[in-house]
């Protein structure tokens, strides 16, 4: 570590140090030096193990906190969520949150909010779905040399080699980084990609591979291509929505289908600076016509209906919510925040969204998770690692060990009640949720609200219930008949046997 004040053990809320985030301490021992030497300090008086940190020693996995240098835990939940999905899931059935340059978005976990920490630990999405929607061509002068010709400018990746899928994934996310130097890699990078035909393969076919979806044909070398084409129809004339009494202009604004991908519906109004959220909301609400081969189809035409039919597994909607250009005079960042807040509120109102990819600017971690969890309920496979913890009645269940969760579709899991139970963060910290949701709040911190029951701390009313970490929404009733089923949906804990 360096010699500045923030890297030394000035542990009592050092005024010259900036709080960088929060970590989960996994031991009651902290130290005066990051290598674990020097006198020990103890945090046994902590009521929870989630604390602020000011600096990190990545090599020793210790964080500088007001208690000293403490061992901390890295939460991999946000990078392992695809493991929960059934192998039979098609990639278009996953509601993917993304940015404009890449159709995937890797977020920092709730314990470590710094992107730098995520990068150090390689905290990008470890599983399959790495889609890319840029409109650039790729050429190689040899099989281990990469160039990206972006509007006449040579761009390459600042990386010495590709040895792992992780390195290739990171390189894809940096296709727009300008660098005129040629780079050579130790391994031909096409080996990392899913290379079979079929625009939307299953997760079973693609585990451990990168799925590359491209606009146009990307050449790997002079004789072969890489990735599968997912072409975006030409749009951009729509600048104001709606415009009454001008049907021809309105038609330009409606979502389009590209001739080469008849099962993919796209909204890409990148010049729309007035009324874009209204257009997006009508798009989500099935209240807008679509255009295919320059023909307008009404909002309830069979073709339009096919993209909203939850039984149609082969359809995909791509929704570019990003902001282009002037952005109504308030700036792209501020306009993007408005769009993102509207989308977050919309999903938070228990909306079920079918086969939908959202491409955004400046998405927050919370919005990314909401999009990810907004898909139709799915069965969860048993996994090898402990990732999710839930509480049913007064019992804490570790769903990744001896049990798995099975859901059957409809009704209450699509509804939301923010007071049903408390956040899974309490459970991960070793505490239970309060049985009385109206318990008096005795303590408030960044985790949530706390009360005492029978002399022990417990978590109360929080924004999300514990089932949301599993991809489900919360039931609408407060006490749904013994707590594990309600209305037409039942959540069943099934014991796994040999």
UniProtKB/TrEMBL annotation:
Gene3D superfamilies: Cellulose docking domain, dockering, Phosphatidylinositol (PI) phosphodiesterase. Keywords: Hydrolase, Repeat, Signal. Residues 421-461 form the CBM10 domain. One of its GO terms (biological process) is lipid metabolic process. GO terms for molecular function: phosphoric diester hydrolase activity. It holds the Pfam family CBM_10. This is CBM10 domain-containing protein. It comes from Neocallimastix californiae.
């Amino acid at each position: 570590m360096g010699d500045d004040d923030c890297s030394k053990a000035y542990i009592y809320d050092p005024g010259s140090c900036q709080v960088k985030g929060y970590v989960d301490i996994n031991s009651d021992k902290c130290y005066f030096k990051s290598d674990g030497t020097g006198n020990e300090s103890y945090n046994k008086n902590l009521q929870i193990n989630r604390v602020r940190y000011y600096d990190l020693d990545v090599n020793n996995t210790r964080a500088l906190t007001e208690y000293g240098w403490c061992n901390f835990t890295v939460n991999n939940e946000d990078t392992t969520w695809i493991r929960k999905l059934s192998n039979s899931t098609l990639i278009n059935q996953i509601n993917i949150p993304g940015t404009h340059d890449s159709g995937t978005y890797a977020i920092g976990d709730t314990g470590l909010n710094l992107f730098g920490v995520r990068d150090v630990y390689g905290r990008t999405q470890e599983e399959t779905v790495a889609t890319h929607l840029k409109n650039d061509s790729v050429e190689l002068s040899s099989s281990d040399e990469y160039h990206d010709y972006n509007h006449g400018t040579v761009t390459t990746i600042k990386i010495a080699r590709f040895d792992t899928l992780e390195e290739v994934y990171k390189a894809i996310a940096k296709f727009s980084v300008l660098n005129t130097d040629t780079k050579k890699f130790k391994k031909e990078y096409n080996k990392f990609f899913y290379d079979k035909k079929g625009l939307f393969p299953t997760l079973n076919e693609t585990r451990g591979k990168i799925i590359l979806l491209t606009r146009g044909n990307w050449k790997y070398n002079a004789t072969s291509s890489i990735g599968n084409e997912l072409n975006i129809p030409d749009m951009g004339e729509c600048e104001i929505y709606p415009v009454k009494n001008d049907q021809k202009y309105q038609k330009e604004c409606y979502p389009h289908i590209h001739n080469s991908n008849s099962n993919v519906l796209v909204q890409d109004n990148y010049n729309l600076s007035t009324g874009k959220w209204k257009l997006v909301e009508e798009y989500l609400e099935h209240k807008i016509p679509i255009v295919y081969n320059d023909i307008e189809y009404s909002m309830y035409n069979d073709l339009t209906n096919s993209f909203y039919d939850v039984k149609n597994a082969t359809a995909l909607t791509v929704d570019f919510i990003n902001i282009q250009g002037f952005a109504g005079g308030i700036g792209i960042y501020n306009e993007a925040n408005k769009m993102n807040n509207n989308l977050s509120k919309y999903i938070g109102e228990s909306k079920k969204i079918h086969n939908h990819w959202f491409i955004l600017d400046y998405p927050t971690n919370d919005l990314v998770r909401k999009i990810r969890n907004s898909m139709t309920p799915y069965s969860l496979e048993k996994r090898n690692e402990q990732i999710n913890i839930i509480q049913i009645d007064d019992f804490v269940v570790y769903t990744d060990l001896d049990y798995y969760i099975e859901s059957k579709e409809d009704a209450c899991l699509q509804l939301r009640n923010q007071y049903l139970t408390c956040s899974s963060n309490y459970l991960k910290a070793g505490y239970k949720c309060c049985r009385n949701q109206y318990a008096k709040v005795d303590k408030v911190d960044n985790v949530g609200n706390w009360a005492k029951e029978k002399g022990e701390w417990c978590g109360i009313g929080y924004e999300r219930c514990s089932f949301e970490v599993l991809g489900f929404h919360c039931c609408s009733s407060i006490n749904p008949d013994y707590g594990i089923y309600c209305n037409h949906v039942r959540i069943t804990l099934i014991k796994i046997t040999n």
